[in-house]
Write a structure and sequence with these properties.
Immunoglobulin-like, alpha/beta, 409 residues, seven-stranded mixed β-sheet
Length: 409
C-alpha cells in the first residue's frame, strides 16, 4: 500500500509539472484528478471502518449431531459516509457445515471462513442469516470475524478483527440401548416405598411438627405462619433417586495404542441415552469420566442433580469429552467409591471391561450402590470380567460406524 500511494503521488505531481511546463491543460487536469482521487481514496479508506459495528447472535447454542443452528448477523453503519463494499469473514469450525454462502479455506484444516459481501449506506444496517449443520459431536467456536472495506475505487483496503467468539455445544447422538436393560437391582427410576433413609425432596406427602435436628430446608414457612409453630415437610421415600454414570473412554486395550473415534462417539452416545432416560424418570443425574475437559487438567465430572438445566449440563460435558485419559477407570472407581451419594445407582459404560474392572465395581456394590455395566464394545469382543449380582447390558457398536483407530498424541 505505501508503494501504491507513492506511485499515485509521483504520477499526479509528474502530470501537473508536465502540464504546467508545456502549458497544456489536459496533463494538468489529469494530474489534478489523479491527486484528488488519491486523496479521496485515502480519506475514505481511513474512515471506512469508523463507527461500523458487527453483531453476531446464535439463538440456539446447543444441538444434537445432524441438527441445524442459525447464526444471525447485523452490520450497522453509524456514520454519514456510505460504504460501497464491505466483506465480513467469520471463522467457523469445520464440524459446522454451512448451508449455502461463500466458504473459503483457512491455513488450518480445523476451520473455514464464511464470507458475506454487501454494501451499506449512511446510517444504515444490513442483516443476514446463515444456517449451519452440526456434523459431529464437540464444543466448537464461531468467530473471530474480520471486516474488510475501503474506498469506492477499490484502490485501498482496510480491515479490522472482531474478537468475539460464540461457543456452541453439539451433543452426542443418542445410541440404541435396550429398554429392558437390567441396570442394577432397582429399575432405572425412582421406586416408591422402601427405606425412608432415601427421600425424594420433589415428592411432598405432608406436614408435621418440627423435630430437633430437622434441617432448615425442610421447614415449611407458610404452614408455620398458619399454625403458629414450626412445621416440617415430609417427603415420599424412594429407593433410587440418583444415578451416577461412570464412562470409561479407553477405546483400545492399552491407552498408548491411541483411540477409536467411532467407538468413542458410541460410548458417549450410550451415556447420552442413559442421562436422558434417567432425567425422564425423575432421577438426579451425575457424570464421572476418566477423560479431561478440553484444555484442562481435570476430570470430566458433573455432580448429581435434578432438572432440565442439569440434563443440559451433563450433555454439554459429554459434548466436551476428549479422548485423552487422566486415569484408568478401575483406579478412578477405587478413588471415588466413597464419594458417591448415599444409595445412588452407578452405571459404568465401557468398551473394554476386563478383570481389573471387576474388583472396583464389586467394591462399589458392597458400599450399598446398585451397580450395572453397559458394555459398548464390538460383538466379536467378549468382556472378560465376571460380575456376580451386576446386570450387564450389551449395546455393540454398529458395524457401519467402524473407523480406523487414531494414534494418541
Amino acid at each position: 500500500m505505501p508503494a501504491l500511494r507513492a506511485a499515485w503521488a509521483l504520477t499526479a505531481v509528474g502530470l501537473i509539472v508536465v502540464g504546467a511546463a508545456t502549458a497544456r491543460p489536459v496533463p494538468l487536469a489529469l494530474g489534478v484528478l489523479v491527486l484528488l482521487a488519491g486523496l479521496v481514496a485515502r480519506v475514505w479508506a481511513r474512515l471506512a471502518l469508523a463507527r461500523l459495528e458487527l453483531e453476531r447472535s446464535v439463538p440456539q447454542r446447543r444441538a444434537f449431531v445432524g441438527e441445524r443452528m442459525e447464526v444471525r448477523y447485523r452490520l450497522r453503519n453509524r456514520k454519514l459516509l456510505p460504504l460501497p463494499w464491505v466483506a465480513v469473514s467469520d471463522r467457523i469450525d469445520e464440524a459446522l457445515l454451512p448451508a449455502g454462502g461463500v466458504v473459503r479455506a483457512t491455513p488450518t484444516l480445523q476451520a473455514r471462513l464464511l464470507v458475506h459481501s454487501t454494501s451499506v449506506g449512511w446510517r444504515e444496517q444490513v442483516r443476514w442469516t446463515r444456517s449451519l449443520r452440526c456434523t459431529r459431536r464437540g464444543y466448537f467456536g464461531i468467530g473471530p470475524a474480520r471486516i474488510e472495506s475501503g474506498d469506492p475505487f477499490g484502490f485501498l483496503q482496510v480491515e479490522r478483527r472482531e474478537p468475539a467468539v460464540h461457543r456452541v455445544a453439539v451433543y452426542p447422538q443418542p445410541a440404541e440401548l435396550p429398554s429392558t436393560a437390567p441396570l442394577g437391582r432397582r429399575p432405572l427410576g425412582a421406586a416408591r416405598g422402601g427405606s425412608p433413609i432415601f427421600e425424594d425432596p420433589s415428592l411432598i406427602v405432608g406436614i408435621r411438627d418440627y423435630r430437633p435436628g430437622d434441617p432448615l430446608k425442610r421447614v415449611d414457612w407458610k404452614a408455620t405462619a398458619r399454625r403458629g409453630r414450626l412445621q416440617s415437610r415430609e417427603f415420599e421415600p424412594s429407593t433410587a433417586v440418583q444415578l451416577v454414570i461412570v464412562i470409561d473412554l479407553q477405546t483400545m486395550p492399552r491407552p498408548w495404542e491411541g483411540y477409536d473415534p467411532a467407538l468413542l462417539d458410541h460410548l458417549l452416545g450410550l451415556a447420552t441415552t442413559l442421562a436422558i432416560r434417567a432425567h425422564r424418570s425423575g432421577m438426579a443425574v451425575g457424570l464421572l469420566s476418566n477423560c479431561s475437559f478440553p484444555e484442562a487438567d481435570r476430570l470430566l465430572e458433573v455432580a448429581p442433580a435434578r432438572g432440565e438445566t442439569q440434563l443440559l449440563r451433563v450433555l454439554e460435558a459429554l459434548a466436551m469429552a476428549t479422548p485423552f485419559l487422566l486415569v484408568e477407570v478401575d483406579r478412578l472407581l477405587t478413588i471415588r467409591t466413597r464419594s458417591f451419594p448415599l444409595g445412588a445407582s452407578v452405571v459404568c459404560v465401557s468398551a473394554n471391561p476386563n478383570a481389573d474392572l471387576a474388583a472396583p465395581l464389586l467394591a462399589v456394590k458392597r458400599h450399598g450402590h446398585p451397580v450395572a455395566l453397559v458394555w459398548g464394545g464390538r460383538e466379536e469382543d467378549a468382556p472378560v470380567v465376571g460380575l456376580p449380582g451386576v446386570g450387564v447390558t450389551h449395546a455393540p457398536l454398529p458395524s457401519a460406524w467402524r473407523r480406523p483407530a487414531q494414534a494418541a498424541t
